[in-house]
């Protein structure tokens, strides 16, 4: 969006938003991206302002945590040479001698971006993720949400196996715990493999069941109980799939080129979540967490992920949110 400063009669911006995301950009504005810009975002759930102009260069955080999924009223106001930040009707920050008259700017056009930046993130004074998982349409704003990670149909993410907690060495062992809260449709939940062979070991959602299989070999299935963690325990010769008191064991083929040991040593070894490359999937699901070796994985640190994944919230019913983005 662009605004002609010579036609602006009110130097304040007020809006409501909600998010479960503790970090990211809410909005950015500049008159000159090199030496006259402003950013409002969240860090550790609290508002943060980064400012760079001829009068001041600063980064400051203030106010209460806003990453609680509730609606909050936020107001940013320029008053004389001061910048004021208000949250839910209360002034939480007053920065003095940080601004000049807007109408006397040499370039009277201001550019505004919502949920992102108009320059490389490396140009910020303090590095930050470039977007907050906040609703981006009227329909998604109306959806009741809860904390979690939501994968709409066809969405996907992947981690390099070298970037996540490593298996135990003696004896070789690796575990994945999946907090599956909601699930609908059919398609992959997760897989271990490479981009060329993404389903060396895979867990597939199908009719409220999960199907565990290795390569093209026969698989085994287990009925899902949503809300109970799914656990995969991998060893050299077998994989144990369990949920609550239920347990199934899948025998693995003899060690060879496709062994788990070699997969972890492979530079392209991946943990895939959601749809696999080239797959048409109707599966949508909500996770309240994903753990490797008992350590929680951060979806914001994935090697790559679909932009329509909700990284910090889930709809109460995944079928109501298949055409929205967070």
Can you offer a commentary on this structure?
By secondary structure, the chain is mainly beta. Helix content is 3%, strand content 46%. The chain has 2 helices and 26 strands. The chain has helices spanning 138-141, 260-265; strands spanning 2-4, 12-17, 24-32, 36-43, 46-52, 57-61, 72-79, 82-87, 90-95, 109-114, 145-147, 149-151, 156-160, 173-184, 187-193, 201-206, 209-214, 220-223, 230-235, 238-243, 246-251, 270-274, 284-292, 295-296, 304-305, 313-315. The strands form 5 sheets. Strands 12, 14, 19, 20, 21, 23 and 24 form a 7-stranded antiparallel β-sheet that branches. A 7-stranded antiparallel β-sheet has the order 18-17-16-15-22-13-25, with no helix packed on it. A 6-stranded antiparallel β-sheet has the order 1-10-3-4-5-6, with no helix packed on it. The chain starts with a strand and ends in an 11-residue tail after the last strand.
Give a short synopsis of this structure.
The chain is mainly β and 326 residues long.
Radius of gyration: 24 Å
**β-sheet strand percentage:** over 45%
Mean pLDDT rating:
86
Query: What structural category characterises the helix and strand content?
Result: mainly beta
Poorly predicted regions are 134-140, 322-326
Using DSSP, what is the number of strands?
A: 26
Number of helices: 2
End-to-end CA span: 20 Å
Strands, helices and their partners?
Layout: E1 2-4, E2 12-17, E3 24-32, E4 36-43, E5 46-52, E6 57-61, E7 72-79, E8 82-87, E9 90-95, E10 109-114, H1 138-141, E11 145-147, E12 149-151, E13 156-160, E14 173-184, E15 187-193, E16 201-206, E17 209-214, E18 220-223, E19 230-235, E20 238-243, E21 246-251, H2 260-265, E22 270-274, E23 284-292, E24 295-296, E25 304-305, E26 313-315
Antiparallel strand pairs: 1-10, 2-7, 3-4, 3-10, 4-5, 5-6, 7-8, 8-9, 11-26, 12-23, 13-22, 13-25, 14-19, 14-23, 15-16, 15-22, 16-17, 17-18, 19-20, 20-21, 23-24
